[in-house]
Batch of 2 targets.
Target 1
Amino acid sequence: MLKYRRTILQAGAGLLVAAPWLTWRQALALTPACSGEPTARQIEGPYYTPQTPRRSTLIDGLPGDVLVLQGRVLNTACQPVPNAIVDVWGCDSEGEYDNTGFKLRGHQLTDAQGRFRFETLMPGSYGNSTFRRTPHLHVKVQGPGTPLLTTQLYFPDQVLNLRDSFFNPDLLVKWAHDKSQALFDFVLPVQAKG
Ligand SMILES: [Fe+2]
């Protein structure tokens, strides 16, 4: 699992990330209190690309509804986890993944308060008449010395949520202000001592 951290850190070495922290302090106040329960795991799915760029804006000029995903990485003692890798990937509004490049893909490191912020697009749904995924984002999160968390995030009020066998209501984001800002705090197991 630590191999993932080494790989992703090497991929992002030397790149700068814009840090518009001041614009989202207020929104974070709406984030639900930490329950201390580790965030539920979900499958990676078939479309993960390793060694994503280190950046906060993932849109690359694609059309669609801009979605800001922001929150914190905490441990089960509800303390912030600085320098955690948060690696996000999603499909575009038509349900297509960029499997040759890095559109709608990227990672960043949490700040001293465990915070992260991405600008991406609201994902579409994909599949066929017998199996269709509700809109979701994929995420990998790993703090220094913590297990790697692979999971997915979902959006409230999506009609397909209850028809998607992967849907987990514990992984619903909270909308802030309007449906362009999604809040979610990830909780990682406390590192075992010793
Ligand atoms: Fe997916």
Note: The helical segments are 2-12, 25-28.
Target 2
Amino acid sequence: MKGIVFTEFLEMIEDKFGYELVDQLLEESDLPSGGIYTAIGTYDHAEMVTLVSGLSKRMDIPVPDLLRSYGQYMFTSFTRSYRPFVERADSAFALLSSVQHYIHVEVRKLYPDAELPHFTIEQPAENHLRMHYISERKLADFAHGLIEGCLATFGETATITKTNLTDDGSQVLFDIRKE
Ligand code: HEM
């Protein structure tokens, strides 16, 4: 998992709860990296699982809620760090439709070792988008937050219905309808 995923996660905790908590969390997590991340480095996905479950226990917030908030936060950070990808789209649906065949393709060129999900995306109607998420990392709640962050960035509102297609969470369907 790329370092940016960790640096932004720790920044979110600092913004929402203060640096003290980041410090305590890193201390008690006993991570192989020592909790020192650079944006372009690559780290074990297991470290993110440790950090998210540690924060969940400490704050008594369910893991799915944390991942979703983190997705929302992350999209805002993408609008800063990867501005050209966001500016190329003129609507939330245009951006979401381009994740699989443009954005993540460019991300892969920048970071050949990136661990990215697979999306099958279809748009049955102008106000209706379907995103089928597949990933062994089972981060659909994070994807949910990214979709919400994307809609918010473009000042749009939509109803997102999330359906688990497998019990283990590796395949999830997002049905997104604009009012
Ligand atoms: C400007 C927009 C975007 C950029 C620059 C971007 C970039 C990235 C990067 C760098 C990673 C980390 C890869 C790794 O850790 O190895 C990632 C992961 C991920 N991205 Fe994107 N992404 C964008 C938009 C989106 C959107 C809109 C969605 C969802 C609809 C999405 C879904 C995901 C998910 C779920 C992961 C976690 C990995 C997994 O589930 O397997 N991304 N993306």
Note: The first strand starts at residue 118 and ends at 125.
